[in-house]
Backbone:
């Protein structure tokens, strides 16, 4: 169940409900209501929560994680960016934005 998964993710990271609420700019009572199953996060919050925990939205729903198509992609990109100068990082970001714009226009 989603409530169990949200609680597990929070506890795995050693966070209290208050600490998580502060990080997500929410109230502790909101976090508690999710974890006790009285409410569910708004749909627009699910990607934010998933990103915060580094999981997919499916995993928040308690589904098995999917094998990523490119394992370690985020770590690889982060390591690459760390080795670049600020100007080179800006060029990488610019190129990424270009790629995204091309995908949207297809």
Residues:
């Amino acid at each position: 169940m989603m409530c169990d998964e949200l609680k597990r993710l929070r506890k795995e990271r050693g966070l209290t409900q208050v600490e998580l609420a502060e990080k997500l700019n929410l109230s502790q009572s909101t976090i508690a209501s999710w974890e006790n199953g009285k409410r569910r996060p708004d749909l627009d919050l699910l990607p934010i929560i998933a990103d915060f925990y580094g999981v997919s939205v499916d995993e928040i729903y308690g589904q098995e994680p999917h094998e990523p198509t490119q394992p370690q992609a985020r770590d690889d990109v982060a390591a690459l960016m760390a080795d670049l100068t600020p100007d080179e990082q800006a060029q990488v970001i610019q190129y990424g934005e270009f790629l995204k714009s091309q995908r949207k226009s297809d």
Residues 21 and 55 are 18 Å apart (CA to CA). The helical segments are 2-12, 17-24, 28-35, 46-53, 57-60, 73-82, 86-105.
